[in-house]
Design brief:
Blueprint lengths: L3 H16 L12 H8 L3 H13 L3 E4 L3 E4 L3 H37 L2 H19 L5 H14 L3 H9 L1 H5 L9 H20 L2 H20 L9
Antiparallel strand pairs: 1-2
Helix pairs in contact: 1-3, 2-3, 4-6, 4-10, 5-6, 5-9, 9-10
Length: 227
Amino acid sequence: MADNKRHDEIVGMIEEFIKSGNFKVGDRIPSERFLAEKFQVSRNTVREAIKSLTEKAVVTSRRGAGTYIAEGAFNCMIEAVTRQNLRLKEIFELRKILEPQIARLAAERISDEHIKEIDTIVKAQQTAFASGKNSSEMDETFHRLIVKATGNSVLSDIYETLHDVLAESRAHTLQTTERNKLSLESHKNLAWALKQRSPDIVEELMREHMEQVEKNLEAPAPKKNKS
């Protein structure tokens, strides 16, 4: 199975090449083998990335001739970004309804064991950030642990059902160093407030966290320096 995170990265990189003018309509993109070696991933991961770009009408494959930048690729990418931004807005509307109330309930019921688990994941997230590693999975675990701390099994089931939708707001392609730093600081503050078992403070901190993350995602991601 292809690595979804690397798959998303490759999709993003190819789209950036098109936006920057390095690939133009009608240009043939490098072979699967070349891209797999360049990005140090499996050919299957590259194949899945190309499939995704084909479905978005950014590239088109010609049997026996390779894969080419499709007519109207740039417009397709703009439309895709617009759709993604609208969906993210709707996801955060949902998260701003759910997460503060979940956090409040957790603060009222949290056990010492749950506090230890949350402390552990925050420390792991801090270590990952310091070493430059992606911490989106730890972000997800942090929020899951807060749901777990409510002791409400039905709420946990609902949260798990929404997993794939909520995960869209943590996609690897949306991560930047600054966004991860701000998220880590919010998690540290929330962990502290949960230890105090203060529902009002925890609820407000979670609401601020959701608003901050949404605001950060609305801002354009800083361009990475070329090495």
